[in-house]
Amino acid sequence: MLGYLLLPLVLLLVASVWADHRTYVTPLYNAFDRTLSHTVLAIAAHLNRGADGQVHLEKPDPGFLPMHPPGAPPPPPSADDSGDHDKLPLRFEPDGRPSIWTHLFPGGRESVVYRVNLPDGRTVAGDQGLPIAQGGVGNGFSYEDAVYKQLPLRIVSYRTQVSGQPVIVSVGETMHRRDRAVRRLDTVIGVSDGIQLLLVLGVCLFGITVALRPINRLGERIAQRQPQSLQPLAVAPVPSEVRPLVQSLNTLLGTVRTAAQAQQHFLTNAAHQLRTPLSGLKAQLEVLASETGDEAQQERIARLYNSVDRLAHTANQLLALARAEPSAHSPGDFTDVQLETLIGSVADSMLDRAIARNIDLGAECAPAHVHGVHWLLHELLINLVDNAIRHTPESGRITLRCGRSGGAPYLEVEDSGPGIPTAERERVRERFYRAAGSDGQSSGLGLAIVEEIARGHHARFDILDAQEGTGARMRVAFPP
Question: At what angle do helices 295-323 and 374-391 cross, to 10 degrees?
């Protein structure tokens, strides 16, 4: 927004400087021209026609000639002129002819040359090579820019009569003083307009900051929402310019909420429809195994039973993985979960499997609780213990832990198995990846489910080395 404002303001600054330059330079040049015309009048006032009929420029007694005729207002003082503004210092050569008039200014030397000539071109006094300004501007004065002796000059010519004799008085002034005055004027204008631009930018920044506060508050409210929160945003405190955006977001949230509810309904129905026939199939296989005495048939039925069991386990894990998506549960599903109670229930449910493998399954619990979805955390811990049992050899050890570390609650499952190489610790989180040495019963989804559930609870899932000996330590650290 500031960029869109800055470019037009800079263009406006350039246009303003140009307009001010055009507005003030013309009157400034006119003031210099008036001062130069007074010099012409001062020279013309001292022209006389002698007894021989020739026009002469008389040398004044005090050495100075008035710059303006009697009764005329004095010219405005120049900012650069440090001399007497009512008199024109004319220098004369030893033979009595006026020479170049010179002013000394702080910025350098400024020169004025003059010429008095007759209409036929004969020079009466001054520098005979000085050009004559052509064209009339009024009152007998004409102005023109010219180059004389490789110097740019501003020339004013005055046509008058001396005792009936037509004469032309011309004075040329170097452009240094005018150019310096214009540069100073442009500098003042540029600085003034630049300061105004900075003030305008400051006001714009303040206005933009104030105007964006409601939008920033809206952004903070959105950032603080839980990922699974799909409730519509409040429209009332939002500025009218942003309301269409908020309304569009609410429409999108409503669509996602509807899709999430439809997904939940599908998952619930799919879980029911899959478990029922698989459980019936396993029951029929058990009955068939009890009625068959043939060892070959018993072996085939056992393999079929294991395959159905793996199919049921994989289906349950796929459903658990889908239901672990953050969008699959609402903020109302989150409650306070006591981690030591959770460990106790999971240990009880997995104890028979551990005893069957002659594995010592124990727990080291300290009081800790988290804000989460109970059945998801139960599924997380079940998958960690199941993974540990699958990779721990007989007579091994599995320890479940919970507590607080640095004010943050955590869950840990440590086993005495072969451990997971550092190079594979990121890959085992991927879906359907099986680490080297895994048994054929693994679906490769256990740790992927753990990762997904941890992400939905803003927790960090780390795979570490066991505290003692070989083995792996799975740690889920929750936010404080």
Answer: 140
Instruction: Let me know the angle formed at the C-alpha of 270 by 269 and 275, rounded to the nearest 5 degrees.
Output: 105
Structure tokens at 172: 């040329």
pLDDT for 72: 38
Distance CA 420, CA 426 (A): 10
Tokens of 70: 């009697």
- The pLDDT of 166-189, averaged and rounded, is 87
In DSSP notation, 267-334 reads: HHHHHHHHHHHHHHHHHHHHHHHHH---HHHHHHHHHHHHHHHHHHHHHHHHHHHHHTSGGGS-GGG-
Contact 105, 80 (CB under 8 A): yes
pLDDT tens-digit map of 11-68: 888 888 888 888 888 888 888 888 888 888 888 888 888 878 888 887 644 333 333 3
CA within 13 Å, CB half, 194: 6
By the 8 A CB rule, do 168 and 117 touch? yes
Write the CA distances from 478 to 196, 211, 462, integer angstroms.
54, 38, 11
88, pLDDT greater than 60: no
Q: Please give the model's pTM, rounded to 2 decimal places.
A: 0.48
Q: What is the pLDDT of residues 286-298, one digit of tens each?
A: 888 888 777 888 8
**Phi, psi angle pair for 157, to nearest 5°:** -120, 140
Nearest to 55 by CA among 127, 162, 128, 129: 162
- Cβ atoms within 10 Å, residue 352: 9
Rounded (5°) CA angle 314-395-390? 15
